[in-house]
User: What shape does this take?
Amino acid sequence: MALSIRTLVALISASLAMEGVASSDAYNQPFSNLSAEQKQSFILGEGVFERFWVPSPSSTTASDGLGPLFNARSCHSCHVNSGRGHAPRADQLGSEVPSFFIRLGSKTRNTKDGVVGDFMYGRQFHPLSATNVMPEGDYRVHWETQQEVFPDGYQVTLRKPVLDWQTLNYGEFADDTGFSMRVSPPLVGMGLLDAVPTATILEYADPDDADQDGISGKANWIEIDGEPKLGKFGHKASMPSLTAQNQSAFNGDLGLSTPLFPAPSGDCTVAQKDCMIAPNGNSAHIDNLEVGHEQTRLVDTYVALSRPPAMRNLDQAWFREAKQTFDELNCGSCHRPKLTTGEATFSALSNREFYPFTDMLLHDMGPELANGFPVLHANPQEWRTAPLWGIGLSEQVSGRNGFLHDGRAQTIEEAILWHGGEAQASKQAYKQLNANQRTLFIRFLESL
Assistant: This one.
Protein backbone atom coordinates (compact mmCIF):
# COMPACT_ATOMS: atom_id res chain seq x y z
CA MET A 1 0.00 0.00 0.00
CA ALA A 2 1.77 3.14 -1.22
CA LEU A 3 1.93 6.28 0.88
CA SER A 4 0.65 9.02 -1.43
CA ILE A 5 1.31 12.72 -0.83
CA ARG A 6 -2.28 13.05 0.34
CA THR A 7 -1.73 10.19 2.77
CA LEU A 8 1.49 11.79 3.97
CA VAL A 9 -0.41 14.98 4.81
CA ALA A 10 -2.95 12.87 6.70
CA LEU A 11 -0.10 11.15 8.51
CA ILE A 12 1.15 14.49 9.74
CA SER A 13 -2.30 15.53 10.94
CA ALA A 14 -2.94 12.20 12.68
CA SER A 15 0.48 12.25 14.29
CA LEU A 16 0.01 15.73 15.68
CA ALA A 17 -3.38 14.66 17.06
CA MET A 18 -1.69 11.87 19.05
CA GLU A 19 0.38 14.44 20.99
CA GLY A 20 2.78 11.67 21.99
CA VAL A 21 5.99 12.07 23.97
CA ALA A 22 9.40 10.68 23.05
CA SER A 23 10.44 9.37 26.46
CA SER A 24 10.18 6.30 28.68
CA ASP A 25 6.49 7.16 29.10
CA ALA A 26 5.83 7.23 25.35
CA TYR A 27 3.52 4.19 25.44
CA ASN A 28 1.46 4.93 28.54
CA GLN A 29 0.11 8.45 28.09
CA PRO A 30 -3.70 8.89 28.02
CA PHE A 31 -5.57 10.43 25.12
CA SER A 32 -6.13 14.11 25.81
CA ASN A 33 -9.88 14.24 25.14
CA LEU A 34 -11.04 12.04 28.02
CA SER A 35 -13.74 12.80 30.57
CA ALA A 36 -12.81 13.25 34.22
CA GLU A 37 -14.26 9.81 34.98
CA GLN A 38 -12.24 8.19 32.19
CA LYS A 39 -9.05 9.86 33.40
CA GLN A 40 -9.70 8.55 36.89
CA SER A 41 -10.29 5.01 35.56
CA PHE A 42 -7.09 5.31 33.51
CA ILE A 43 -5.05 6.20 36.60
CA LEU A 44 -6.65 3.48 38.71
CA GLY A 45 -6.12 0.98 35.91
CA GLU A 46 -2.45 1.87 35.73
CA GLY A 47 -2.28 1.12 39.45
CA VAL A 48 -3.72 -2.37 38.93
CA PHE A 49 -1.37 -2.86 35.97
CA GLU A 50 1.64 -2.05 38.16
CA ARG A 51 0.40 -3.92 41.26
CA PHE A 52 2.58 -6.69 42.64
CA TRP A 53 0.46 -9.72 43.50
CA VAL A 54 1.26 -12.19 46.27
CA PRO A 55 0.35 -15.86 46.80
CA SER A 56 -2.57 -16.87 49.01
CA PRO A 57 -3.26 -16.82 51.84
CA SER A 58 -2.16 -13.29 52.77
CA SER A 59 -3.35 -10.25 54.69
CA THR A 60 -3.96 -8.33 51.45
CA THR A 61 -6.97 -10.10 49.98
CA ALA A 62 -7.32 -7.53 47.18
CA SER A 63 -3.86 -8.47 45.85
CA ASP A 64 -3.43 -12.16 46.61
CA GLY A 65 -3.91 -15.28 44.55
CA LEU A 66 -0.63 -15.17 42.58
CA GLY A 67 0.14 -18.55 41.06
CA PRO A 68 0.37 -21.31 42.17
CA LEU A 69 2.57 -21.34 39.04
CA PHE A 70 3.52 -18.07 37.40
CA ASN A 71 6.02 -16.21 35.21
CA ALA A 72 5.72 -12.71 36.69
CA ARG A 73 4.33 -10.87 39.70
CA SER A 74 2.75 -7.94 37.85
CA CYS A 75 1.68 -6.85 34.37
CA HIS A 76 4.38 -4.19 34.53
CA SER A 77 7.06 -6.85 35.09
CA CYS A 78 6.46 -8.15 31.57
CA HIS A 79 5.55 -4.83 29.95
CA VAL A 80 7.88 -2.24 31.52
CA ASN A 81 6.21 1.12 30.86
CA SER A 82 3.81 -0.83 28.59
CA GLY A 83 6.78 -1.69 26.36
CA ARG A 84 8.03 -4.84 24.68
CA GLY A 85 9.94 -7.59 26.41
CA HIS A 86 13.41 -8.91 25.64
CA ALA A 87 15.15 -12.27 25.57
CA PRO A 88 17.57 -13.53 28.26
CA ARG A 89 21.29 -13.12 27.88
CA ALA A 90 23.28 -16.34 27.69
CA ASP A 91 24.33 -15.90 31.34
CA GLN A 92 20.74 -15.53 32.62
CA LEU A 93 18.20 -18.14 33.66
CA GLY A 94 14.77 -17.88 32.11
CA SER A 95 13.27 -17.32 35.56
CA GLU A 96 15.19 -14.03 35.77
CA VAL A 97 13.47 -12.50 32.72
CA PRO A 98 9.68 -12.30 33.21
CA SER A 99 9.09 -10.67 29.81
CA PHE A 100 10.33 -13.86 28.07
CA PHE A 101 8.31 -17.06 28.22
CA ILE A 102 7.84 -20.41 26.52
CA ARG A 103 4.55 -21.57 25.06
CA LEU A 104 3.86 -25.29 24.71
CA GLY A 105 1.56 -27.03 22.26
CA SER A 106 0.86 -30.22 20.41
CA LYS A 107 2.56 -30.53 17.04
CA THR A 108 -0.27 -32.62 15.60
CA ARG A 109 -3.46 -31.97 17.60
CA ASN A 110 -5.37 -28.72 17.21
CA THR A 111 -8.74 -27.36 18.33
CA LYS A 112 -11.06 -24.51 17.33
CA ASP A 113 -10.97 -22.85 20.74
CA GLY A 114 -7.39 -23.05 21.95
CA VAL A 115 -4.04 -24.82 21.98
CA VAL A 116 -3.64 -28.41 23.18
CA GLY A 117 -0.81 -28.16 25.71
CA ASP A 118 1.57 -30.67 27.19
CA PHE A 119 -0.17 -33.20 29.47
CA MET A 120 2.17 -32.45 32.38
CA TYR A 121 3.24 -28.83 31.82
CA GLY A 122 0.16 -27.30 30.19
CA ARG A 123 0.28 -24.52 27.60
CA GLN A 124 3.00 -22.38 29.16
CA PHE A 125 6.18 -23.16 31.07
CA HIS A 126 6.32 -21.56 34.54
CA PRO A 127 9.69 -21.31 36.30
CA LEU A 128 8.21 -19.60 39.41
CA SER A 129 5.76 -20.90 42.02
CA ALA A 130 4.06 -20.22 45.33
CA THR A 131 5.16 -21.87 48.57
CA ASN A 132 4.56 -25.64 48.77
CA VAL A 133 4.20 -25.92 44.99
CA MET A 134 7.18 -27.04 42.95
CA PRO A 135 8.07 -24.72 40.03
CA GLU A 136 8.11 -26.38 36.65
CA GLY A 137 11.85 -25.90 36.19
CA ASP A 138 14.22 -23.51 34.49
CA TYR A 139 16.19 -23.02 31.29
CA ARG A 140 18.80 -20.94 29.53
CA VAL A 141 18.87 -19.56 26.01
CA HIS A 142 22.00 -20.05 23.93
CA TRP A 143 22.56 -17.95 20.84
CA GLU A 144 23.66 -19.34 17.48
CA THR A 145 25.01 -16.70 15.11
CA GLN A 146 25.17 -16.39 11.37
CA GLN A 147 26.31 -13.72 8.93
CA GLU A 148 24.05 -11.96 6.44
CA VAL A 149 26.18 -10.55 3.59
CA PHE A 150 24.92 -7.76 1.31
CA PRO A 151 25.92 -7.31 -2.35
CA ASP A 152 28.08 -4.29 -1.43
CA GLY A 153 29.97 -6.33 1.18
CA TYR A 154 28.15 -4.96 4.22
CA GLN A 155 27.62 -7.67 6.86
CA VAL A 156 25.18 -8.11 9.74
CA THR A 157 25.47 -10.75 12.46
CA LEU A 158 22.16 -12.43 13.22
CA ARG A 159 21.46 -14.50 16.31
CA LYS A 160 19.01 -17.36 16.79
CA PRO A 161 17.83 -18.63 20.20
CA VAL A 162 18.30 -22.27 21.19
CA LEU A 163 16.60 -23.62 24.31
CA ASP A 164 18.75 -25.38 26.89
CA TRP A 165 16.61 -26.95 29.63
CA GLN A 166 18.36 -26.79 33.00
CA THR A 167 15.72 -28.50 35.15
CA LEU A 168 12.37 -30.17 34.44
CA ASN A 169 10.79 -30.81 37.82
CA TYR A 170 7.78 -32.77 36.55
CA GLY A 171 9.57 -35.11 34.16
CA GLU A 172 10.02 -35.04 30.40
CA PHE A 173 7.69 -33.40 27.91
CA ALA A 174 5.43 -35.52 25.75
CA ASP A 175 6.94 -36.57 22.42
CA ASP A 176 4.29 -34.54 20.60
CA THR A 177 5.00 -31.28 22.45
CA GLY A 178 6.41 -28.34 20.51
CA PHE A 179 7.90 -25.14 21.89
CA SER A 180 7.62 -21.46 21.07
CA MET A 181 9.82 -18.83 22.68
CA ARG A 182 8.05 -15.48 23.06
CA VAL A 183 8.65 -11.96 24.36
CA SER A 184 5.86 -9.78 25.69
CA PRO A 185 4.58 -7.48 22.92
CA PRO A 186 4.36 -3.70 23.41
CA LEU A 187 0.94 -2.35 24.38
CA VAL A 188 0.87 0.46 21.84
CA GLY A 189 -2.53 1.74 20.70
CA MET A 190 -4.33 -1.44 21.75
CA GLY A 191 -7.66 0.37 22.13
CA LEU A 192 -7.58 1.64 18.56
CA LEU A 193 -6.67 -1.78 17.18
CA ASP A 194 -9.45 -3.36 19.24
CA ALA A 195 -11.96 -0.94 17.70
CA VAL A 196 -11.17 -1.86 14.08
CA PRO A 197 -14.24 -3.70 12.72
CA THR A 198 -13.83 -7.31 11.69
CA ALA A 199 -15.13 -6.48 8.22
CA THR A 200 -12.37 -3.91 7.73
CA ILE A 201 -9.64 -6.40 8.58
CA LEU A 202 -11.16 -9.06 6.33
CA GLU A 203 -11.09 -6.64 3.39
CA TYR A 204 -7.31 -7.07 3.33
CA ALA A 205 -7.33 -10.87 3.64
CA ASP A 206 -6.24 -12.85 0.59
CA PRO A 207 -5.53 -16.36 1.93
CA ASP A 208 -5.25 -17.93 -1.51
CA ASP A 209 -3.31 -15.04 -3.07
CA ALA A 210 -6.04 -14.47 -5.61
CA ASP A 211 -4.33 -11.32 -6.92
CA GLN A 212 -1.05 -13.25 -7.29
CA ASP A 213 1.08 -10.57 -5.67
CA GLY A 214 2.82 -13.07 -3.39
CA ILE A 215 1.10 -11.70 -0.27
CA SER A 216 -1.68 -13.83 1.25
CA GLY A 217 -2.90 -12.32 4.49
CA LYS A 218 -5.03 -14.76 6.45
CA ALA A 219 -7.46 -14.40 9.35
CA ASN A 220 -7.18 -16.48 12.49
CA TRP A 221 -10.42 -17.57 14.13
CA ILE A 222 -11.25 -18.76 17.62
CA GLU A 223 -14.52 -20.48 18.50
CA ILE A 224 -16.26 -18.99 21.55
CA ASP A 225 -19.57 -20.52 22.66
CA GLY A 226 -19.93 -22.06 19.22
CA GLU A 227 -19.37 -18.77 17.36
CA PRO A 228 -16.20 -17.96 15.40
CA LYS A 229 -14.48 -14.73 16.48
CA LEU A 230 -11.69 -13.02 14.58
CA GLY A 231 -8.34 -13.15 16.38
CA LYS A 232 -6.80 -9.69 16.72
CA PHE A 233 -4.17 -9.88 19.44
CA GLY A 234 -1.15 -11.97 20.33
CA HIS A 235 1.78 -12.97 18.12
CA LYS A 236 -0.48 -15.53 16.43
CA ALA A 237 -3.66 -13.37 16.43
CA SER A 238 -5.22 -15.91 18.79
CA MET A 239 -7.16 -13.52 21.06
CA PRO A 240 -10.36 -11.83 19.80
CA SER A 241 -10.36 -8.70 21.96
CA LEU A 242 -8.31 -6.47 24.21
CA THR A 243 -10.03 -7.78 27.34
CA ALA A 244 -9.49 -11.41 26.30
CA GLN A 245 -5.80 -10.67 25.75
CA ASN A 246 -5.47 -8.93 29.13
CA GLN A 247 -7.35 -11.61 31.03
CA SER A 248 -5.44 -14.39 29.32
CA ALA A 249 -2.21 -12.77 30.54
CA PHE A 250 -3.56 -12.45 34.09
CA ASN A 251 -4.43 -16.15 34.05
CA GLY A 252 -1.53 -17.65 32.12
CA ASP A 253 1.34 -15.42 33.25
CA LEU A 254 0.31 -14.59 36.82
CA GLY A 255 -1.97 -17.56 37.61
CA LEU A 256 -4.92 -15.30 38.56
CA SER A 257 -8.60 -16.08 37.98
CA THR A 258 -10.64 -13.61 35.90
CA PRO A 259 -14.21 -13.44 34.54
CA LEU A 260 -13.16 -15.06 31.24
CA PHE A 261 -10.66 -17.46 32.81
CA PRO A 262 -12.11 -18.36 36.23
CA ALA A 263 -9.80 -21.28 37.10
CA PRO A 264 -7.80 -20.10 40.16
CA SER A 265 -5.11 -22.66 39.42
CA GLY A 266 -4.19 -20.92 36.16
CA ASP A 267 -2.30 -23.25 33.83
CA CYS A 268 -1.87 -26.07 36.37
CA THR A 269 -2.58 -29.49 34.90
CA VAL A 270 -4.42 -32.33 36.59
CA ALA A 271 -1.09 -34.14 36.77
CA GLN A 272 0.29 -31.39 39.06
CA LYS A 273 -1.63 -32.36 42.19
CA ASP A 274 -0.10 -29.89 44.66
CA CYS A 275 -0.78 -27.09 42.21
CA MET A 276 -4.44 -28.04 41.80
CA ILE A 277 -5.15 -28.01 45.54
CA ALA A 278 -3.06 -24.96 46.46
CA PRO A 279 -4.82 -22.06 48.27
CA ASN A 280 -6.34 -19.40 46.03
CA GLY A 281 -7.39 -15.78 46.43
CA ASN A 282 -10.96 -16.04 45.18
CA SER A 283 -12.88 -13.52 47.29
CA ALA A 284 -16.60 -12.97 47.73
CA HIS A 285 -16.09 -9.21 47.56
CA ILE A 286 -14.25 -9.56 44.21
CA ASP A 287 -16.89 -11.59 42.34
CA ASN A 288 -15.47 -14.84 43.79
CA LEU A 289 -12.41 -14.25 41.64
CA GLU A 290 -8.86 -13.04 42.14
CA VAL A 291 -9.19 -10.33 39.48
CA GLY A 292 -12.83 -9.29 39.39
CA HIS A 293 -14.95 -7.42 36.84
CA GLU A 294 -14.05 -3.98 38.16
CA GLN A 295 -10.32 -4.68 38.20
CA THR A 296 -10.38 -6.06 34.66
CA ARG A 297 -12.43 -3.05 33.53
CA LEU A 298 -9.84 -0.67 34.98
CA VAL A 299 -6.90 -2.46 33.35
CA ASP A 300 -8.79 -2.60 30.04
CA THR A 301 -9.43 1.15 30.31
CA TYR A 302 -5.76 1.87 31.01
CA VAL A 303 -4.55 -0.23 28.07
CA ALA A 304 -7.27 0.95 25.68
CA LEU A 305 -6.82 4.65 26.40
CA SER A 306 -3.01 4.70 26.26
CA ARG A 307 -2.40 6.67 23.08
CA PRO A 308 0.29 5.82 20.54
CA PRO A 309 3.29 8.16 20.42
CA ALA A 310 3.37 10.78 17.69
CA MET A 311 5.42 10.12 14.59
CA ARG A 312 8.60 12.11 14.35
CA ASN A 313 10.73 13.72 11.61
CA LEU A 314 7.79 14.25 9.28
CA ASP A 315 9.14 17.69 8.37
CA GLN A 316 12.60 16.41 7.47
CA ALA A 317 13.59 16.47 3.80
CA TRP A 318 14.73 12.83 3.84
CA PHE A 319 11.42 11.52 5.21
CA ARG A 320 9.67 11.56 1.82
CA GLU A 321 12.59 9.82 0.13
CA ALA A 322 12.60 7.11 2.79
CA LYS A 323 8.83 6.80 2.49
CA GLN A 324 9.31 6.13 -1.21
CA THR A 325 11.71 3.30 -0.34
CA PHE A 326 9.06 1.82 1.98
CA ASP A 327 6.67 1.81 -1.00
CA GLU A 328 9.17 0.33 -3.42
CA LEU A 329 10.04 -2.50 -1.03
CA ASN A 330 6.31 -3.34 -0.84
CA CYS A 331 6.39 -3.25 2.97
CA GLY A 332 2.90 -1.74 3.08
CA SER A 333 1.32 -4.93 1.73
CA CYS A 334 1.52 -6.35 5.26
CA HIS A 335 2.49 -3.31 7.35
CA ARG A 336 -0.55 -1.42 6.08
CA PRO A 337 -0.14 2.21 7.13
CA LYS A 338 -3.74 3.25 7.79
CA LEU A 339 -6.70 1.64 9.55
CA THR A 340 -10.04 3.08 10.67
CA THR A 341 -12.01 2.31 13.80
CA GLY A 342 -15.77 1.89 14.04
CA GLU A 343 -17.97 2.72 17.01
CA ALA A 344 -16.08 2.06 20.22
CA THR A 345 -16.79 1.97 23.95
CA PHE A 346 -14.82 5.21 24.31
CA SER A 347 -15.59 8.19 22.09
CA ALA A 348 -11.86 8.98 21.90
CA LEU A 349 -11.45 5.77 19.87
CA SER A 350 -14.58 5.92 17.70
CA ASN A 351 -14.54 6.41 13.91
CA ARG A 352 -10.93 7.42 13.87
CA GLU A 353 -8.24 7.07 11.20
CA PHE A 354 -4.88 6.04 12.59
CA TYR A 355 -1.54 4.75 11.35
CA PRO A 356 -0.33 1.54 13.06
CA PHE A 357 1.40 -0.04 10.01
CA THR A 358 -0.25 -3.45 10.32
CA ASP A 359 -3.07 -5.35 8.64
CA MET A 360 -3.66 -7.47 11.80
CA LEU A 361 -3.56 -10.62 9.63
CA LEU A 362 -1.39 -13.73 9.59
CA HIS A 363 1.44 -14.03 7.07
CA ASP A 364 3.91 -16.80 6.28
CA MET A 365 7.28 -15.55 7.53
CA GLY A 366 9.32 -18.52 6.36
CA PRO A 367 10.86 -21.57 8.06
CA GLU A 368 13.55 -19.64 9.98
CA LEU A 369 10.85 -17.99 12.13
CA ALA A 370 8.59 -21.04 12.50
CA ASN A 371 7.57 -22.13 15.99
CA GLY A 372 6.91 -25.68 17.14
CA PHE A 373 3.12 -26.08 16.81
CA PRO A 374 -0.01 -24.63 15.17
CA VAL A 375 -2.20 -22.10 16.99
CA LEU A 376 -5.84 -22.36 15.90
CA HIS A 377 -5.67 -21.66 12.13
CA ALA A 378 -2.10 -20.30 12.22
CA ASN A 379 0.50 -22.79 11.08
CA PRO A 380 4.01 -22.66 12.64
CA GLN A 381 5.35 -20.26 9.98
CA GLU A 382 2.46 -17.78 10.21
CA TRP A 383 2.54 -14.71 12.46
CA ARG A 384 0.36 -11.66 12.87
CA THR A 385 1.86 -8.55 11.25
CA ALA A 386 3.49 -6.61 14.08
CA PRO A 387 2.46 -2.91 14.20
CA LEU A 388 5.41 -0.60 13.57
CA TRP A 389 4.20 2.56 15.31
CA GLY A 390 6.42 3.64 18.16
CA ILE A 391 9.08 1.05 17.27
CA GLY A 392 11.88 3.60 17.37
CA LEU A 393 11.14 4.36 21.03
CA SER A 394 11.34 0.74 22.21
CA GLU A 395 14.68 1.04 23.96
CA GLN A 396 13.74 4.33 25.62
CA VAL A 397 10.56 2.78 26.97
CA SER A 398 11.75 -0.60 28.26
CA GLY A 399 15.52 -0.32 28.45
CA ARG A 400 16.42 -2.96 25.86
CA ASN A 401 15.41 -3.89 22.35
CA GLY A 402 14.06 -7.30 21.41
CA PHE A 403 12.20 -7.46 18.11
CA LEU A 404 10.24 -10.35 16.52
CA HIS A 405 8.22 -12.86 18.52
CA ASP A 406 11.20 -14.26 20.44
CA GLY A 407 13.28 -11.10 20.79
CA ARG A 408 16.13 -12.47 18.67
CA ALA A 409 16.55 -9.24 16.69
CA GLN A 410 18.44 -6.58 18.63
CA THR A 411 17.93 -3.97 15.90
CA ILE A 412 15.24 -3.17 13.36
CA GLU A 413 17.65 -4.14 10.60
CA GLU A 414 18.16 -7.58 12.12
CA ALA A 415 14.37 -8.02 12.23
CA ILE A 416 14.14 -7.19 8.52
CA LEU A 417 16.83 -9.73 7.70
CA TRP A 418 14.94 -12.53 9.45
CA HIS A 419 11.92 -11.96 7.18
CA GLY A 420 11.22 -14.84 4.81
CA GLY A 421 8.19 -16.46 3.20
CA GLU A 422 5.87 -13.76 1.87
CA ALA A 423 8.40 -11.09 2.87
CA GLN A 424 11.39 -12.74 1.18
CA ALA A 425 11.25 -10.47 -1.88
CA SER A 426 11.07 -7.34 0.29
CA LYS A 427 14.07 -8.50 2.32
CA GLN A 428 16.11 -9.15 -0.80
CA ALA A 429 15.15 -5.74 -2.17
CA TYR A 430 16.30 -4.14 1.09
CA LYS A 431 19.69 -5.81 0.69
CA GLN A 432 20.03 -4.20 -2.75
CA LEU A 433 19.79 -0.67 -1.30
CA ASN A 434 22.95 1.38 -0.97
CA ALA A 435 24.25 2.36 2.46
CA ASN A 436 22.60 5.80 2.49
CA GLN A 437 19.22 4.38 1.43
CA ARG A 438 19.41 1.75 4.18
CA THR A 439 20.23 4.37 6.80
CA LEU A 440 17.33 6.60 5.80
CA PHE A 441 14.93 3.65 5.60
CA ILE A 442 15.75 2.53 9.14
CA ARG A 443 15.45 6.14 10.32
CA PHE A 444 12.02 6.28 8.67
CA LEU A 445 10.88 3.15 10.54
CA GLU A 446 12.27 4.56 13.80
CA SER A 447 10.15 7.67 13.24
CA LEU A 448 6.78 5.91 12.91
In short: The mean pLDDT is 94. The chain has one domain: 5-446. Residues 5-446 form one domain.
